[in-house]
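To whoever picks this up:

The parser on our side crashed when reading a file containing two proteins. I've narrowed it down to the boundary between the first structure block and the second sequence. Both blocks are reproduced below exactly, byte for byte. First block:
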Amino acid sequence: MEELQFTNAQRAHVLTGALPYIRRYNGRIVAVKYGGNAMINETLREQVMEDIVLLSMVGVKVVLIHGGGPDVSDMMARLGKVPEFVDGLRVTDAETVEIAQMVLAGKVNKTLVKLLELKGGKAMGISGIDGHLIMARQKNPALGFVGAITEVCIDPIVDLLEKGYIPVVSTLGCDAEGNTYNINADTAASYIAGALGADRLIMMTDIAGVLRDRNDPSTLIPKLTIDEAVELFRTEVIAGGMIPKVECCIDAVLRGVDSAIIMDGRVPHSILMELLTDEGAGTMVVK
């Protein structure tokens, strides 16, 4: 694709047009749950990091919360283990949770930190284990070390934000006995955003948002109240893999987040489109 060329006047117009939105979010907390194709595709990954660094540089306090399921599955395959899922959750035995910790808190987390810093950001990677950020219990004995969140301690994130860092959080948890748990990243993002009193939670996915007709992207629903979302559950407009995404958005709003957005992470610079334009991107859930 031929690169678009802009005059200096056009660049100035774009920057001044973004000023009201920059003022709106300056000093506010925006939590970004990062995963899906935007994490796997190298070009998209770089664009997401550029968006986050830009927002941080204009005074937005961005918290990046990430998963990494495909990387965990890849490492399991290398070690001769076959991934097994029940209702979309990975069955996690003692060996698998060690692999998850190694991949999520190690490879994936530090790769994102490195990318943010290469783009000019100031980032620090932590896991839900650090500072008892995510306390958890076993969700279901049949799933092994898959955790249900019992408590969130946001002090480590707040400390990093106050020092000007972009916190990069891998979604592992622990209990008082020292057990490590694999935590669903969407769920962790809703808990963390709520505890922080975030202005926005952005859930990056591989679809445009909530569609009235799931086969027609033009039927995107730009905004939903909780009551409207419940009605769409009832009529099965929201179905399948979209159910837990919307549920996490509702949970975040009920926990104190001003709004939660499900957006298509495959769209270049979708975060900037959401925060710095009138048009926005994806489906916004509000109370």
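<<boundary where parser fails>>
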Amino acid sequence: MPGPLEGIRVFDLTRILAGPSCTQMLADLGADVIKIERAGAGDDTRKFAPPFIQDANGEETSESAYFCAANRNKRSVTLDISKPEGQALAKKLIAKSHVLVENFKTGGLAKYGLGYDDLKDEFPGLIYCSITGFGQTGPYALRPGYDVLIQAMSGMMSVTGEPDGEPMKSAIPVADLMAGMYAGVAINAALRHRELTGEGQQIDIGMLDVMVAFSTVQGMNYLSTGNVPERLGNAHPNIVPYQAFKTADGAMILAVGNDSQFQRFCDVADAPDLASDERFATNALRLQNREQIVPLVQDLLLKQPTQFWLEALEANSISGGPINKLDQVFADPHVNARGMKVEMDHPATDGGKVTLINSPMKLSGTPTENRMAPPMLGQHTDEVLSEVLGMDDTELAALRDSGII
């Protein structure tokens, strides 16, 4: 069954992670994503290695695992947009596209004649999505933006880490990924607007904006009280008990989401005194008395091994779970039942397969489809230019000889 974005062509001028994660989502939903890369170099993440994916014999290939994380279902075309001939060719492909996505520095594409202002009149139906560190306007607009910088400036690092430790970034590049997520949502909204009116528009995604929005609960806690949130380690700012605890043989998460769950936990833990203690009768009181209740809960959990608690909590509809390492995640029966790993043929593997993290989007009528593995550099140049622009072998050879492709 065709994907919901089948028939939509995306001219993809993104690299690293924020932009590619966006365009991979569009590709997973059926869009024809044409990834434009520099000949001989390509997306910077092709060199963010090791590790590399392995071939059929378990040997390293030339393809980085990082690149493969965000470039499934795309076609790679090499094109030198620094040359007038390359810019002219880019415009021909843009004329055949519905969406352009780029994550150059603000104003970076204007010097190639490919900025939004350069294209909007010639292509009034074009949806032009720019993903940058700080957006197209404002005093920081011209600054380069990287994930760790945005995590720091957005306040995320200030609330992440142990109370007596230093501010910490997330181990996952959440600023990049959330920028890609918001961009994907905005592009789909713009496609709907285009469908209704025929009009294109520019989408301005700033990573700092995204992470300020991402502060959600912590941001609202500050705006509502004027109190600057402090780091709480694995604890929750608004719910208690809701954090990591040690057990007799390890550690786990206990996430008591409401008062009835707390009462059930006390029953499971054989702690009637805790259940009847007026200091802990409601979440508001438990929050107020966090320093008293957390040690009491910790003492209870130390009495039994992790598996005992996991089984007891599940049997009583109390939220709790293991703190998995990634090998445990990808061996988890639920993760596998949900199809979160996918194997695909890859030209670099000499007959082997590459294992990828699958899309989490589950659509009953138009499911995502894994059509193509992350491409080799320039793998589809001839295919795209002949299919989309009707170029013949002679024209392609001339472009290649002149270094344009």
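After patching the parser it read the second block fine. The mean pLDDT is 97. DSSP finds 17 helices and 13 strands in the chain.
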